[in-house]
Structure formats: structure tokens, C-alpha cells
Amino acid sequence: MRVGERIEAGIRRLNDVIVDRPRAVVVAFLLLTAVFAGGIGLVSTETEPTEGFTEGLDEQEALDAVNEEFEDPFAADGESTQLIHVSGNALSKEALVRNLRVIERVESRESLRVADANGPATIVAQAIDPSATTVTEQRRALEGATETEVRRTVRQLDDANPAFSRSLATDFNPTSASASASITVVSHDVPSGFDDLAGLQTEVASIAEDEPADIRAFGTGIVNDETGQVIGDSLTIVMPVVVLLLLLFLVVAYRDPIDLSLGLLSLLMTVLWTFGFLGYSGIPFNQQMIAVPVLLLAVGVDFGIHIINRYREETVQGFEPVEAMRTANNQLMVAFVIVTVTTVFGFGANVISDLTPIRNLGLASAIGIVFTFLIFGLFLPAAKLEVDRLRERYGVPEFNSKPISSEDSTLGRLLAFPARASRYAPIAFVVVLLLTGGVAAAYGSGVDTSFEQEDFLPPAEQPEYVTSLPEPFAPGTYTVTETINLLEDRFATSQDQSVTIYVEGNFEENHALAALSQPNADPPDALAVGDGGSARPTSVATVIRSHAERDPEFGELVARNDRDGDGVPEQNLDRVYDELFASPSGDRAEQFLTPDRRNAKVEYAIDADASQAEAAADARAFADDFRYEATATGQLVVFDAITDIIFDSAIQGMILAVGLTAGFLVVAYAVLEGKPYLGIVNVFPILVAIAFLIGTMRALGLSLNALTATILSISIGLGIAYSVHATHRFIDEYNDGRNAYDAMLKTLSGTGGALLGSMLTTSLGTGALALAITPVLGDFGLLMALSVLYSFVFTVVALPPAVLLWERYRGAPAGRPAASSA
């Protein structure tokens, strides 16, 4: 017995179990559902939007070192909260007092674990009254001061305390003592492993909101809390729409409430099994994972419609239920296995990504597809037989058991039209498809790749359809994006406008600072923003020059050790550092040089016209010019590194998915049918669909990002189902003695109806993700809907001429009429 015959015999034995012992199969699957349901409570939610993408990157490790080693009063780390005060003048006496009132109320709550607070209000108050060490004393000192005294103090602080101006908006005017916004950092004394930072910071935010001023709290905990809220709100909005759309189209497809209930039960079981797997395996649920249940519902709908529709095709011909299901499942099981394997290849190809969230998405969706096959390939047929037996026993009528389409129906004739048209010139059809697909792919090769934190955050202004939703669908209030925009607009803290060079070496060596400054004269284009095309750095050398201008004694020390007169000393650096760190500029110096003088950071402004990729590439090349070991880092560089990996993941995943799918189909059709080249024919429509999808992405201005990067391989996995079902039905009809043309007519008029129903439900179901709150999910949903539409269209349009050419060049067997004479 050949391999194909053994496989077919195994499938028949499996189907015999399903149709002969349906009750046992149903009970077994219900028990497994209970087991998987136990894992749902173990599912964890990952709310840090970008954390998983940065793991293992050299640029991120350098950035972590920078954040850990250099003090930055603006860094809202895991133990601090930023209070951002927006006002007509955040330095007026009234604004400063209001700021201190908020801090005072925050400090009074023991649960908020306040260690200290630093900002313009505390600095001004202590300058007015150096004995005011508590927040209450500082508030009283400010309340007792005059507006004139406050303005004079602000002017003095601008000269004496550089950190003061850095806590103010870039429009800070020392002459008028005015600024449109300020930042105060509240530090929290929390133990190691503290995990309720979100609760702590949201409580601070509620206190700030009670003050009659625009004071808002911001920090990592608030960002993570809103990200988690976005996940929940997106599911609350998207899933009911998905279910409603599926329900509407399943009603049309099944036209029988009992069959509809079985289909919905199978879909529910698929989701329960998959979420249970996530819980037991420890894979966290994040924003990208919202796509998984939608994808599984799409494939499940496809399987369900095919099995019910094929079963009905047999029953309307007069076969008894058991024999009808045996025939239907014997034919469909092979197709289901092929679809499952190819879909696993498509979805699972993402596990090769170097980015953990994309790997997790690939693994979860691949496992979910296996569950979908088991439930719809084994449970649903068994449950359908068992329910039909009960229906017959209790006299429950059938509402509508006709298949979706047939050869004699208008829909059947419409779906078969491409086959009739391509009959006369299949070569021309294939050539046109190849040319148009090639043009679309060439155009789409210029699609952008991006990675931005804003992709994971809700827009600052929600569309009206979101804000007008009634409870319980109404989303929460989001502030993070608006606050981030405020910080970028008003403060010189945006990492999108600068890059950081992390330098490791001994900075007490003579000429160490000169070596740090030497590359600045001839930087790459993106960093050449200074006078004469030089770089514009901010480093410990900058602090030394600045302090030397304000402190004559320190200036003399620098001059004595500055041989070339450039303002940077070349010798006795240890003494220069000692004097600098002991001065009022010491806190500023600590932001660029570690106390042990072994590590330094240099911040470089970048050309506003330079793209992220250009700036990051130039920063990496510039780091190589340093005498010491140097690494380019910063948010811009890290995100660019992720962008490169995203692009590589998309291309590698697509190539792997296509290669595995094509190879498997060639082997499968060779083993099962002795027709290996049908595997290539099977892949042809999906390749054309992917080409058009890539072209559409560029035309719509959509980029490959943290989620849409998976669309290429996922589209292969999801779209190949349409071509596989059509090809498998074609083989059945072809093996019954029909020529390729007649077999394709029969296929498209019969299975084509199921494909159409599946396409409508799947495209609208996945397209519902476009309603999600975050852009990354909305773009993914739109592309998934287009992918499914293209897969269906090109299965109907591209498969018939390809099959006709396959028969022509394969040669029609003896006794079988050629397609051209049919």
C-alpha cells in the first residue's frame, strides 16, 4: 500500500470513529474544554507597550546603562511621578503655591510613600527661605513672599542653578520670570518588587485633578495602566462587533438556528482552548494578542461553513445523515489537514522573529489553529450527527438544509464565470495576473517600516463613534498621549530630537575630554547641525565650559589645564572633576559623567529633516569615530533597531511561509493524488493576493509595524485556505472523470458558495479590528480584511486558468476529454 493510500485509510478510520461514536467524541471534547477553561484565570496581561520589543538589543542595554548610571531629574522611572503644571505663567506666585499644595496633599497620604519632591516651586521656596525644608514650610515661605521677590528669585536661580531651567518649558523667559509649564518630580520610597505603581500614580493624578489648576500626573505606572485599559476597552468594542457580524452572516450561511448554535459553540470552544493554553504556557496577553481570537474565529467560520455546507450537499441528494457525514468528512478531512498545516506554517512563521511579542503571537495563533482543526474537524461533525439524531427523535423540523449555492443557482453561475472566461485563453489570463501582480509587488516594495510608542497608545482625540458609545461599551478616559505630546512640544526632553552616545573608558586620563570632543568637528550629515557643519553636543565638557563662565575661580583652574585654549582641560582632570562635582553645577555634571569617571554620555542634536533611519545610521557610524568604546543609543536609535528587525521578520516570515507551504503542498498532492504540480497551482492565487496586498499597503500609506509586520505570513496562512478548499474539491471532481474545465465549474458553483460565505464573515470579522482604539490594531484589522478579500477573489479568478494550464501541459489521461473540447 502506497503512502497516500495509508494516509487516506487512516483518515477514513478517524472519520469512522466520528460518525459511529459521535456521543463519545462530544463528551471527550467537552471535558477537554473544561480543562482548558481552568487556564483562563492564569492569563497575565502585559501592559508595557514596547518592553517586549527591546529585549536583548545592544542599543537598549546601552540605554538602560545610561538611565541607571546618569541622574536625570526628568526621568519618570519606576519610583517617581511627574507633576506637569500648565499655566499662563507656571512661575507666578499663585502657580507655585498651587503646585506646593498638591505636593503637600500627596505627601500627607502615607500610602503614596513620598520620599521627596523636586521642582521649580520647591527650588524657589528654598531660595527664598533656606530653612524651609518641608513642603508645608516651603508653601508658607512662598505665600509670605511678594510677586517681586518671587520674580527676583527666579532670575537669580537661572544663573545659579542650571537644573532649575531644565524643569521649565522651553519658552522660559528669565527676564519676565515666566514659563508656560513646569515639571516637578515626586519620588516614592517603595520596596523592591513593588507592583502597584499604577495605583499609586493614579491616586496622585486624582489629587492633582482636584486642584483648580491644570496639573497632571504622569509616569510609567499611568502609561501601563492606560495601556491595560486600552486592551480591555478594545476587546469590549471589537469582540461584540465581531460576534454580531459573524452571527448575521452565519445566520445567512446556516439558515438553521440549531446549526448556527453548533457553529457558535465550536467558535467559543476554540477561544476557550486558546486562552487556556496562554494561561498554562505563561504567554502574556498584550495588544497584539487581541488579533489572535479574531483570526481563530475567521478560520473556524471557514471550517464550519465548509463542513455543514458539504454535508447538506450530500443530504439533499437523499443520503442518510451518517453516510452523508462520512462522505463529507472523508472529502473535507484531507482539505482540513492541508489547510491546518499550511495555516500553521503561515501563522507560525512568525516564531523566527527576534522580537518576543511577534514570536508569542506566532506561537499562540499556530497552536490556536491546531485547536480549531480539532474542534471543527472532529467535534462539530460528531455534534451535528448527534443533534440531528435528537432532532429526528423529537420531531424538531429542519428550517433550511440547502447548500449555499449550486450549479443551477444564479450565485453558482456568477462564481463560475471566471472559469468560463479563462477557458478560451488561460495563458493570457495567467500572464496578465503575473504582470499585474509583479507591478503591485514592485510598487509595494517601497512600503515603509515603523515602530513608535504612539502605535500602542490611544489617539489624543477619540473618534465620535467611540466617545458616543453607551455603557458598558464606552471606553475610559485616556490622558497619556496628550501628556506625551505636551512634553514633546514644551520641554527639551524629546528623545526623538536627539541621540545619545554612551562612552566607556577612563576619563581621568589626560586628553580624555579632548578625545570625547574630537569627532565633533566632522560628524555625519544627520548630526551636522552646529556652526560650520560641526556637531552640537551636550556633555560633561559642556558643563565645564558653562560653569567656568559663571565661576571665575573654576575658570582659572580650567584655563591652567587647557593647553589649546578650547575651553576643555587636557590635564589634572581628576581635580577639575572634584571641583565641578562639588559646585552647584555638580548635579548637572552627574548627568554626563559617572562619579567613578569611567562612563560618560554625550547627547547630540539631530537634523530635523533627517529620518529616523538616517539619524540612527549616522549615530552608529559616529560612535565608531570615538577613541573609547562607544555605543549609539537613545529612544530613536532603539526604535530604529526594532524597525530593522520588524522588516527582517516580515520578509523572512513571508519567505518561510511561502517556502514551507509550497513544499508541503507539492509533497501532499504528490503523495495523496500523484499530482505534485497542483501544489504550485494551489499557491499561485495566494502569491498574487499577497502582491496586491503589499501594493495596497503602500497606496494607503500603511507601514509594516509591530503588528502589521506579521500580515504577510498570516495572510498566506489564512488565505491559502480558500485555494486549498477549491483545489481539493477540484481534485474530487476531476478524479470522478470530469475534465479540468468541468471540474472547475462544479467546484466554483458548489464550494465557491462556501468560500464566498467564509470570505464575507472573515473579512468583516477581522475588519472589525479597525474599530479598536489603538492605531496598530486598526491598521491590522483593515489589512486582514483586504487580505481575505484578495485571497477569495484571486482563488476564483486565478485558480481556473492555472488549473487549465496544469491539465494542458500535464496531458489529459486516456479516455478523459481535454479542457478545450469539453
UniProtKB/TrEMBL annotation:
Localization per record: Cell membrane
Record domain SSD: where: 263-382, 672-805
InterPro entries hit by this protein: MMPL_dom, Mycobact_MmpL, SSD
GO cellular component, one term: plasma membrane
Alphabetical keyword list: Cell membrane, Membrane, Transmembrane, Transmembrane helix
Transmembrane segments: 21-43, 235-254, 261-283, 289-311, 332-352, 364-383, 424-443, 650-672, 679-700, 706-724, 754-774, 780-806
A Pfam family hit: MMPL
Membrane topology qualifier: Multi-pass membrane protein
SUPFAM superfamilies on file: Multidrug efflux transporter AcrB transmembrane domain
Protein name: Putative lipid/cholesterol transport
Organism: Halorubrum tebenquichense DSM 14210
